[in-house]
Amino acid sequence: MISKIRIVLLLVIILSFLLLAIVLTRPIAVRSHNAVVEPHYDPLAETWVLDWDLYELFQKPFNLFNANIFYPNSHTLAYSDHQIVNAILASPIMAITNNPV
């Protein structure tokens, strides 16, 4: 049987780490609906790829790799990481929030 003191100590440790994580990531923890980590170019590109993957998977799945970038080239999603599995894993959160960030 775990004593009450151990349970309280465990809860204090968990809450301390949670508070520390929020403090150390405060710009993102406070503004997670529209904030990205510096530098902006890579997180925004990854966000775009995830959003494109989900859009095309549910709209036109056979047209997935014809992304709307680098026009007039075709199959441009293959120029970088396509992240289809990550998009599928993120799809419930993106469906609930309607926000790829």
What can you see in these coordinates?
The chain has two domains: 1-35; 37-101, no CATH class. Helix content is 58%, strand content 0%. The chain contains four helices and no strands. The model has no long low-confidence stretch (mean pLDDT 85). With 101 residues, the protein is mainly alpha-helical. The termini are far apart. It is elongated, with a radius of gyration of 20 Å.
Précis, in short:
With 101 residues, the chain is mostly helical. Helices cover 58% and strands 0% of the residues.
Secondary-structure blueprint of this entry?
Elements: H1 4-24, H2 26-30, H3 41-59, H4 84-97
Silhouette: elongated
The poorly predicted ranges are: none
H and E string:
HHHH
Radius of gyration: 20 Å
Count of DSSP-assigned helices:
4
Number of domains: 2
Helix content: 55-70%
The N- to C-terminal Cα distance equals 44 Å
Report the mean per-residue pLDDT as an integer: 85
Summarize the biggest pleated sheet. none
Percent of residues in beta strands?
under 5%
Overall strand count = 0
List keywords for this structure.
4 helices; 2 domains; 101 residues; mainly alpha
